[in-house]
Amino acid sequence: MKSLSFLSLLLLLFIFTQANTHGWKRKEARGSQHQHIRIKKNQQSSATKFRLYTDTSEEGCLILSDQLETLDKCSFNDSLPLVMIVHGWSVDGMLEGWIWKMVAALKSQHKQTNVIIADWLSLAHQHYPIAAQNTRNIGQEIASFLEWLEESVQFSRSNVHLIGYSLGAHVSGFAGSYISGTNKIGRITGLDPAGPLFEGMSPTDRLSPDDANFVDAIHTFTQQHMGLSVGIKQPVAHFDFYPNGGTFQPGCHIMHVYNHIAQYGITGITQTVKCAHERSVHLFIDSLLHDDKQSMAYWCNDIHTFDRGMCLSCRKNRCNTLGYNIRKERLQKSRRLFLKTRAHMPFKVYHYQFKIHFINEIHEKQVEPTFTVSLTGTKEDAENLPITLVEGITGNKTYTFLITLDIDIGELMMIKFKWEGTAVWANIWDTVQTIIPWTKGNRQPGLIVKTIRVKAGETQEKMTFCSQSVDNVHLHPAQEKTFVRCANSSRRLKRKFR
Ligand SMILES: *[C@@H]1O[C@H](CO)[C@@H](O)[C@H](O)[C@H]1NC(C)=O
Ligand SMILES: *[C@@H]1O[C@H](CO)[C@@H](O)[C@H](O)[C@H]1NC(C)=O
Ligand SMILES: *[C@@H]1O[C@H](CO)[C@@H](O)[C@H](O)[C@H]1NC(C)=O
């Protein structure tokens, strides 16, 4: 983790020093608009190549926006929607491998779609600040292309979905804002929209919700160094998804760096630095490939609140589906949605909120136990899931946790709740007991857990579990208690459950 931070720091330093040596200022961005006008006058010099994906040509079939016959030649079907993929900054001047995976995923699920790759490599294969500056021109070229489609074959822009990765997200935003007329492009998806030189800019200088009828974004690498992050942190869409908090992604840590370098040599390093950034792409591809494993995300203020299981509500648009199949609800304000994911495809996990009321019988002492839970469902079991408490347990209080499962266990039927502890721990506990005078008879003091309330994010089901042994509710170190669905009391408890 530490070394990766170091690598990404290097990457950012590189970007940053380049930015300084080239003296990027917003003024220059405005200057580039003049440059664009020159490009627009002369279609021949369009820097963007529009490659329509066909099964027969690996490179894609080139559509030239002043040559109507190329539409026919490439078998562009104007009665089908158009998805246009826009890549980002290019280090080596070649289209990255994910593009073909994305194309294949789109085609496998939605055969009735035109898929075009907007290839702007010649202007993306530059120092980062130059490439960033070029996003405006490319956005304008895409806008002109869509206008041409509209004029020549009455192809409606509302049938267009732009999917832009990194700088490509801002390219898409500019395309949406430069297209003439009042109607907007149908949808823009920003995949980890680039941060440096866009973070904190006004909505007209980056991807923003008013660039299309519907805008969604997935933020996967917003880990910050010296005020800069590869991916933009701020919300830029109607729905902004922050998988695992958006800063960094599971499976992208140091062990994988070593593996990659061993396997691929030095290119392994850049691959790993890109890992979290590019995760946004693979999450989107995942949503296309696994219809039955759609990841759900939930509205929350921040990841810390989310990690306490506080945000699993789906009421009033509070949750949405990540990726292609998102519910296209347009809200006044950007909504930040959080979710956990696995380290690989399919990325979906199942989110549960656990709400446990503890009574610590030793009021003066704070205990910091380690708990594990084992869950029995109608389909599967999940065993020994650790619960990490952020604070010690004092007095008489309700604590909430987030628990995620890789598998669908079906309906939750039984919970085994264990206070992990060694003999040493049990000894300490005994010592504590002898120090503190105990007056309530000969029963050993402990933690009392009467009920466990559970909410399943994916099904929105709420359940209450009662201790199986009603007469012995005390929990001690190294002890396990079994909780089953409460009988008959469910209605009464439901009211208490927020
Ligand atoms: C275009 O797509 C429509 C709808 O699927 C189909 O009916 C039509 O045959 C297609 N046109 C061409 C030229 O393939
Ligand atoms: C715990 O707190 C609740 C209300 O906050 C109170 O009714 C109850 O008596 C307390 N129980 C103990 C054992 O302190
Ligand atoms: C639930 O309540 C009903 C009537 O109120 C009773 O007949 C039944 O035995 C109860 N079930 C359990 C599991 O306690």
TrEMBL record:
Residues 350-485 form the PLAT domain. SUPFAM superfamilies: alpha/beta-Hydrolases, Lipase/lipooxygenase domain (PLAT/LH2 domain). It catalyses: 1,2-di-(9Z-octadecenoyl)-sn-glycerol + H2O = 2-(9Z-octadecenoyl)-glycerol + (9Z)-octadecenoate + H(+); a triacylglycerol + H2O = a diacylglycerol + a fatty acid + H(+); 1,2,3-tri-(9Z-octadecenoyl)-glycerol + H2O = di-(9Z)-octadecenoylglycerol + (9Z)-octadecenoate + H(+); a 1,2-diacyl-sn-glycero-3-phosphocholine + H2O = a 2-acyl-sn-glycero-3-phosphocholine + a fatty acid + H(+). It is found in: Secreted. Residues 1-19 form the signal peptide. Catalyzes the hydrolysis of triglycerides and phospholipids present in circulating plasma lipoproteins, including chylomicrons, intermediate density lipoproteins (IDL), low density lipoproteins (LDL) of large size and high density lipoproteins (HDL), releasing free fatty acids (FFA) and smaller lipoprotein particles. Also exhibits lysophospholipase activity. Can hydrolyze both neutral lipid and phospholipid substrates but shows a greater binding affinity for neutral lipid substrates than phospholipid substrates. This is Hepatic triacylglycerol lipase.
